[in-house]
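ligand=magnesium ion
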Amino acid sequence: MSSLEQTLSIIKPDAYERNLSEKIKAIFIKNNLSILKSKKLHISKDEAAEFYKVHQSKPFYDQLCNYLSSGPIEVLILEGDNAVSKNRELMGATDPKNAKDGTIRHLYGISIDKNSVHGSDSVENAKIEINFFFKIS
Ligand code: UDP
Ligand code: MG
């Protein structure tokens, strides 16, 4: 079954600094995810900590927050049929070593932490994450 959804994508610092934003956005568009809104920003460590608070008990949390706040990022609202799962498929596995051929993380990811993109993992979290970055309800 198809349902029209929105999801949040982040082009992380490792991809942004290698000027991969346009290439990554072209993959979304080619796969029928439209970019409703986008913005470039450089968040603080406190903002990264709030965004990633579901991971606060994980051993990699502090490093993750340092990383996401280490440089400019681009945040995108993607919209399309089954946008949440479609974006996750296009991203590939968290660790680029395990990401399928042709996925964004397989093409561009450097390591499990510098893995180029974030994508919401559920419709509910997509709403929370879009609201976090775009302050819309
Ligand atoms: N991460 C990490 N080390 C790990 C697992 C995750 O640095 O062992 C980072 C990685 O950048 C990942 C983010 O934490 O994208 C969030 O982890 P999650 O399990 O939610 O992966 P994702 O949803 O991004 O695939
Ligand atoms: Mg996740």
